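Incident log, structure service

09:12 report received: a user says their structure output differs between two submissions of the same chain.
09:20 pulled the input from the user's history:
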Amino acid sequence: MKKYFKIIIAALVALIFIGTFVFLWVKSQPKPTEYEEFTPTYKDLKKTTIVTGKIEPRNEVNVKPQISGIITELYKHAGDMVEAGEIIAKVKVIPDMGQLSSAESRLRLAQVNVKQAKVDYSREKILFDKGLVSADEYDKVHQTYKQALEEVRASEDNLEVVRDGVSKSNANSSSTLIRSTISGLILDVPVKLGNTVILSNTFNDGTTIATVANMKDLIFRGNIDETEVGKLVTGMPMKITIGALQDTKLEASLEYVSPKAVESNGTNQFEVKAAIHGLNGVTIRSGYSANAEIVLSQANHVLTVPESAIEFQGNQTYVYVVKGSGDKKTYERRKVVTGLSDGLNIEIKSGLTLKDKVRGPKKVTDDGSQDEE
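09:34 re-ran on a clean worker, output below:
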């Protein structure tokens, strides 16, 4: 029994050894190379580019005061609609002491002059009634008196404007009432009650009381690389996708391409603007980040193959056409003329037909590696 047991053990060891040898030999044999194969098909090709930017109102206005002072009333807030001429805020004037002193002095002088003119007029009228002076002399004295009265009224108005920012004669157009210059939506009111504001002049831009914009007339503003700007034409259609509204796509048309580049991150960028059409009740907020898709070139119903099947050699392009089948399969290198590419598929202008089949890249094995020849 022991003898038979030893023979069985030896046979098993030999069998394992031979099996291992055969397995390793089979694994070491080169596998036939397999390739993807594609049949040309007709497709519509588009070469597009994506421009990043944001949505802005075409007309955005900063409303600023015509006088310096302190905000005493705010009648409108961010998000409110406003009509042109509608009051947004009220300002209490802080008078300039030099101007105030000059206005008061002017009024005092005008009052002195009108008193003297009144006395002269009264004397002249008595003499005129007695026929002792001519009508011409009387008219001159009367005119001087009326001018003195008008100067008093003008001085009083000037003092009220300097001191209060408004006079009785121009109360309806008071500069203390800050009015919107356009109709639209108030985007921002950066001031609060009690804030000091200054008017715009040569030395400063003035304080912004409110920012108003027409949100029914929006534009897309972005930048495009110099390698693609030469393909843009005014009027080209664009599709706008807003990051905050992924399900909303807006139509737009290109209306401006900057003639001058701006350097950004080491590359030259050109500013573009596009008019947005058909909001259809969609609520758009100023400053939304957005992407604009522009079709740079297009070819409809053309013969195509995957670009991975094309061999590029200098200015020439080639494909490998499948001949035969099974173990007798061969590949014939053929020159083709290509056209538009969208990055995945490429147009074949000549050299292939629908009956042909072309070789693609090598198939990938289960372990992720490509078959070796």
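09:41 both user submissions now match this output. Likely a transient worker issue. Closing.
09:42 reviewer note: The chain has a mean pLDDT of 84. The longest strand covers residues 289-306.
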